[in-house]
Design brief:
355 residues, alpha/beta, TIM Barrel, Hypothetical Protein Ychn, Chain: A, 2 domains, globular, binds iron/sulfur cluster
């Protein structure tokens, strides 16, 4: 693995988000209560509200980001009525025409992607389409009441790519009827579709979702946080090996999820991605120590300043683990800004990490 330099990751680009919770969706997936996830009630923004919000974002963020997109998340965009789709796009397009925003994006279900649906938006400056895939196992999709099959995703991905859109795929772990091997197989299947980026979400038990009922009567057991982090780490590394960016792991810390009345159970952590990256770094350090001749009593680690918190782990749990497991008296971490952001030297061994 080579140094990744200082190139900004994909998700550094500014996204002006418009949540359209559950809108355009005739389904009720067992895990979904989009109103909880987005913290908003179900309504599409008016043109006036969209203009106001985009202008607010532009005023504060215009000069700090390489590119800007307006996005429609949280519902099933292409499942909206044609009039609503056009109204939303027509409200957003002038920002692109004036050069204030680069392009538009939306998330939608795989079974809404048809040649006709894509033809209807062909003249709009949409650059990115994200699919809520969740799993590539029909049995898991059925248990989650998704209402589509894995083949719908394969077809949709091909149509999206054939039209030249950037393709994003979202998958979930911990769904009813799924397991680690199933999630890993899903990751491989998604990587084979050659998406431009993916997101990985743990299944959470949200109040008001059908899963909440299954959880209450003991028919669904959410993943433990540690096991979920380890699984998502494996998935991240699968995508990374194929050079597919993983732009998010875990749900965003939103007001809805911070409220214990909304989040009933499940592997939620506001710094979920950090936990995954920290575990990757811990594995790498342990790999060096495990293969060394004599574990040192004092361990020297040199790394780029941006990597330090991942070396330490959340609340320094990596350091505590290393000290206990390898009987280290002291771990000295030195920051070196000349290192690549993913470079780390453990003792005398230099590594370039995927974290
Ligand atoms: S497809 Fe499922 S997850 Fe998406 S909005 Fe509809 S019910 Fe929710």
């Amino acid at each position: 693995m080579k140094p990744n330099g200082n190139r900004a990751p994909l998700d550094r680009h500014l996204i002006v988000p418009f949540f359209i919770p559950h809108m355009g969706c005739p389904h009720q997936c067992v895990f979904c209560n989009q109103r909880t996830i987005t913290g908003k009630s179900a309504q599409t923004p008016t043109a006036e509200a969209l203009h106001t919000e985009v202008k607010r974002f532009l005023k504060h963020a215009k000069k700090r980001y390489a590119s800007i997109q307006i996005s429609f998340f949280g519902g099933n965009f292409l499942g909206l009525s044609p009039d609503t789709i056009k109204a939303l796009l027509n409200a957003a397009v002038p920002f692109v025409r004036r050069g204030e925003v680069d392009s538009l994006r939306f998330s939608t279900r795989p079974d809404t992607i048809t040649p006709q649906a894509l033809a209807a938006i062909a003249d709009d400056p949409v650059s990115t389409v994200e699919l809520g895939v969740q799993s590539m196992h029909d049995s898991v999709l059925k248990a989650a009441a998704r209402g589509h099959r894995a083949m719908d995703t394969v077809r949709a991905a091909a149509l999206i790519k054939a039209r030249g859109y950037q393709l994003g795929l979202q998958m979930m772990v911990g769904l009813p009827g799924d397991n680690d091997a199933g999630a890993i197989a899903t990751a491989h299947a998604l990587a084979a579709l050659k998406p431009d980026f993916v997101r990985i979400y743990p299944t959470l038990v949200l109040a008001g979702s059908p899963l909440a009922e299954l959880f209450r009567c003991g028919r669904y057991h959410p993943m433990a946080l540690d096991a979920c982090v380890t699984l998502v780490k494996q998935l991240f590394l699968i995508f990374k090996a194929q050079r597919i960016p993983v732009v998010r792991m875990g749900l965003q810390a939103s007001d809805g999820l911070a409220d214990p009345a909304s989040l009933l159970a499940g592997p939620y952590h506001p710094a979920f991605g950090h936990l995954v990256y920290s575990e990757i770094v811990l594995d790498a350090i342990q790999g060096v120590l495990a293969h060394g001749q004599d574990p040192p009593r004092n361990l020297s680690i040199v790394t780029h300043p941006r990597m330090v918190s991942r070396v330490q782990g959340l609340n320094k749990r990596n350091l505590r683990h290393l000290q206990a497991a390898y009987h280290l008296e002291e771990i000295v971490i030195t920051q070196d800004a000349r290192f690549a952001p993913n470079q780390i030297r453990v003792g005398s061994q230099t590594l370039y990490l995927d974290a």
